[in-house]
Automatic annotation (TrEMBL):
<feature type="transmembrane region" description="Helical">
    <location>
        <begin position="35"/>
        <end position="54"/>
    </location>
</feature>
<protein>
    <submittedName>
        <fullName>AAA family ATPase</fullName>
    </submittedName>
</protein>
<dbReference type="Pfam" id="PF13807">
    <property type="entry name" value="GNVR"/>
</dbReference>
<dbReference type="InterPro" id="IPR050445">
    <property type="entry name" value="Bact_polysacc_biosynth/exp"/>
</dbReference>
<dbReference type="InterPro" id="IPR005702">
    <property type="entry name" value="Wzc-like_C"/>
</dbReference>
<feature type="domain" description="CobQ/CobB/MinD/ParA nucleotide binding">
    <location>
        <begin position="556"/>
        <end position="727"/>
    </location>
</feature>
<feature type="coiled-coil region">
    <location>
        <begin position="239"/>
        <end position="297"/>
    </location>
</feature>
<keyword id="KW-0175">Coiled coil</keyword>
<feature type="coiled-coil region">
    <location>
        <begin position="350"/>
        <end position="430"/>
    </location>
</feature>
<dbReference type="InterPro" id="IPR003856">
    <property type="entry name" value="LPS_length_determ_N"/>
</dbReference>
<dbReference type="InterPro" id="IPR032807">
    <property type="entry name" value="GNVR"/>
</dbReference>
<dbReference type="InterPro" id="IPR027417">
    <property type="entry name" value="P-loop_NTPase"/>
</dbReference>
<feature type="domain" description="Tyrosine-protein kinase G-rich">
    <location>
        <begin position="410"/>
        <end position="485"/>
    </location>
</feature>
<dbReference type="Pfam" id="PF01656">
    <property type="entry name" value="CbiA"/>
</dbReference>
<dbReference type="Pfam" id="PF02706">
    <property type="entry name" value="Wzz"/>
</dbReference>
<keyword id="KW-0472">Membrane</keyword>
<keyword id="KW-0547">Nucleotide-binding</keyword>
Length: 750
């Protein structure tokens, strides 16, 4: 869709831009001035009422500091540690100062239950009494009779009667009221805490603030002492219990040792049987080692006995004879190899050396056999020694089995006795430390300055109250004005339409607030010089100037949603054009909710649906308006599928035929955002007039409907704003059509 944009060369300058922006802001304030006035009046009234009811208050402040310095008199660990110097710890101390428990102590200490300022059960001037007294002081009038009448009326209605209460409820209410007047703050950048209290009297405010500080410091020190005393009491009780347990566990160890006859040996904590068992185990390990060595030696001897030439037999068997025979064997084998190389295997010398080598090896095997017998004997001796030690160990183990079980139980009893003694000694030492700490407790905070009675009240005066209410009301009103204007997603004037959706807005159709009984379609004929008639006539002129009312033109009139005034625009425009002498045909294509027949009359035997399906002829459906000569065809809601009828080729040919017979054909179509009936008529129309209700229809809905028309191949050529309140428009808008509207009304007749 081509955007419709108006460019003014003067807007290029920065000064003009600021002027336009300022004008828009002022226009918003003017348009929403009722909201601003209502907000100012409400806030001023509330502020005035509050000023009359509110009593002046005095605020007194004391300063505390969480002391970062600590005094270390001893190296003993404290039962309760000092406060950490962190924001969370300071926040916790502030909560303690403002807690209900601290407030209850202050209330009881100062007797605030009997103070009328905090105890609502005590008789004191009511809000009405204070308001009337404020009026008396401000205006100088005596309103005592009025006060008595109001009080009597409220008492008779049960409003001013106070319900009976108990002492506990009174005290709880006083504590809550005192806490509301208390505040404790810290800036999170230092260790200071500001304790403030607000009261009606300056001296009372200072006294209560100092009482909170004093109670907090007292409670801090008392908490440490109470915790330390509780720790001492617990340690004493626990030490007495442990002392008895140590005595019982030591006696159990001695009794069990005597009962089992567990006599300690010379090695310290071991018995004689345990020492013998350990020695026998060591001897068995030695015997097993010797037996392993003997078996390994026997295995090597068997290898040498089978083949004395393999391996080092002398090293394996440890025999000097085998060693000497081995050396001879090496010499003979070397000479044998030389002779074989020189003379061959058949030489007599070679045969002699072969015989010598054979005899020598036979001697080595015989010697190895003898040695192996000796080694086997050693293996048997080692095995016998091992068996003897195993038998002795088994026997001794059987003898000491009972003693080992007794030793296990004895060790368990000894461990229990030692553990009890260690715990007893540790707690005894800790008891001595905590007793020394009882007189060394220090506060974690100290007073920097006590609260002093203030000289001036901390609450604002009555004039400031009223002035503040006026200013706040003005600000709130302006905020609400801009907010309402921002949230208003409708169209305010034709310029707004063109800037938002880029379609020319050709006119405004005013509403008829002063003629509620008059029908617009008759009013345009009965009062041709009225504002309403001139507005409709201006729309016709604009359409004619744009070529939309040339001979053979088909103007499709639609809207986004129902209630926009679409049918009214069709009727008034069609009747005015017909009254001016033009041949105009009005086709009611809204087959779901038709209205034209109810307005102009419906006496024809057929309607548009009958004409499309062939049940009626042209002369059977066309009716004539008696006042203007307007030809119209009504629609009746008896069709189940109106979209199929409206999109048929038959209707397209009917509209084409009508465009040849009439100067202008106007199609009253259904709303685009509700049903899709109007979309099928776009191919038959030459112009599309879109009706939007002024300050009513959301812009997004209108834009979406226009986009749907564009998607169907029909651009919206013009827009009309309907049901416009011209007085409100002239008063709240600065657009061109609103300028001079009040002065222009003398050209119109009512």
């Amino acid at each position: 869709m081509a955007a419709y944009t108006h460019v003014d060369g003067a807007l290029g300058s920065e000064a003009s831009t600021r002027e336009v922006a300022l004008r828009d802001l002022l226009q918003v304030l003017r348009r929403r001035r009722s909201t601003i006035i209502a907000s100012v009046l409400c806030c001023t009234a509330l502020a005035t009422t509050g000023a009359l009811l509110y009593e002046p208050r005095f605020t007194s402040q004391a300063v505390l500091i969480i002391d970062p310095r600590t005094t270390e008199v001893t190296d003993i660990n404290a039962v309760i540690s000092n406060l950490p110097r962190e924001a969370a710890a300071i926040r916790t101390e502030i909560d303690m100062i403002t807690s209900t428990a601290t407030a209850a102590k202050v209330v009881d200490r100062l007797g605030l239950v009997h103070d009328p300022e905090f105890n609502g059960a005590i008789e004191r001037p009511s809000a009405i009494d204070r308001a009337i007294a404020g009026i008396n002081d401000t205006l100088g009038y005596d309103l005592s009779p009025l006060q008595q009448q109001i009080t009597g009326y409220l008492n008779s209605a049960g409003i001013g009667v106070k319900e009976p209460t108990t002492a506990e409820k009174e005290r709880a209410a006083v504590i809550a009221d005192v806490r509301r007047g208390l505040s404790a703050t810290s800036d999170a950048q230092s260790y200071t805490i500001l304790v403030s209290f607000k009261a009606k009297e300056a001296e009372k405010a200072a006294r209560i603030a100092n009482a909170f500080v004093d109670e907090y410091l007292r409670d801090q020190l008392q908490t440490k002492k109470d915790v330390n005393q509780q720790a001492n009491k617990w340690l004493e009780d626990r030490i007495n219990e442990l002392r008895a347990q140590v005595e019982v566990s030591d006696k159990a160890v001695q009794d069990y040792r005597a009962q089992q006859g567990l006599v300690l040996g010379s090695a310290g904590g071991e018995t004689f049987l345990s020492q013998q068992l350990a020695e026998l185990n060591r001897a068995l390990v030695v015997a097993q080692t010797e037996r392993g060595r003997a078996e390994a030696r026997a295995q090597n001897a068997r290898i040498v006995a089978r083949s004395p030439t393999q391996g080092n037999a002398a090293e394996i068997l440890g025999s000097p004879l085998i060693q000497r025979l081995g050396e001879e064997e090496s010499g003979i084998a070397r000479r044998l190899a030389e002779y074989r190389t020189r003379y061959g295997d058949q030489h007599p010398a070679v045969q002699a050396y072969v015989n010598q080598l054979t005899n020598l090896r036979q001697k080595m095997r015989e010697e190895a056999t003898k040695i192996m017998a000796v080694i086997n004997n050693e293996v048997e001796i080692a095995r016998a020694r091992e068996r003897e030690l195993e038998a002795a160990l088994k026997k001794l183990t059987a003898e000491t089995a009972g003693e080992l079980g007794a030793n296990v139980r004895l060790a368990q009893l000894q461990r229990e006795a030692d553990a009890n003694r260690r715990v007893y000694e540790g707690l005894l030492q800790r008891l001595v430390e905590t007793r020394e700490q009882d007189d060394l407790q220090q506060r974690d905070a100290r007073v920097v300055s006590l609260a002093e009675p203030p000289l001036e009240p901390s609450t604002p005066g009555k004039k400031l109250f009223v002035g503040g209410g006026l200013a706040v009301g003005l600000l709130i009103g302006m905020f609400l004005a801009f907010l309402r204007d921002h949230l208003n997603k409708t169209f305010r004037n034709t310029q707004h339409v063109e800037e938002t959706i880029g379609v020319p807005a050709i006119g405004l159709v005013p509403s008829l607030p002063h003629h509620k009984n008059a029908k617009p379609e008759d009013y345009v004929l009965d009062r041709p010089r009225s504002e309403y008639s001139e507005a409709v006539r201006a729309i016709g002129v604009s359409l004619y100037a744009r070529g939309a009312l040339n001979t053979g033109s088909v103007v499709m009139v639609t809207s986004a949603v129902p209630g926009e005034g679409k049918t009214t625009v069709c009727l008034t425009l069609a009747r005015m054009l017909a009254a001016s002498g033009r041949r105009v045909l009005l086709l009611e294509c809204d087959l779901r909710c038709p209205r034209i027949g109810n307005v102009l009359g419906d006496n024809a035997p057929g309607d548009l649906s009958d004409l499309i399906v062939g049940k009626a002829e042209w002369n059977d459906v066309v009716q004539v308006d008696g006042r203007t000569g307007l030809h119209y065809v009504v629609g009746r809601p008896h069709c189940d599928h109106p979209q199929e009828l409206l999109g048929s080729e038959k209707l397209a040919s009917i509209i084409k035929f009508a465009s040849l017979e009439y100067d202008c054909v106007i199609l009253d179509t259904p709303p685009m955002a509700v049903v899709a009936d109007a979309g099928v008529l776009t191919r038959s129309a030459t112009e599309c007039l879109f009706v939007v209700r002024w300050e009513q229809t959301p812009r997004a809905v209108v834009q979406r409907a226009i986009e749907r028309l564009t998607e169907l191949g029909r651009d919206v050529t013009s827009v009309v704003l309907s049901r416009v309140d011209l007085k409100k428009l002239a008063r709240t808008d600065a657009s061109e059509e609103a300028y001079g509207m009040n002065e222009a009304r003398r050209y119109y007749t009512r």
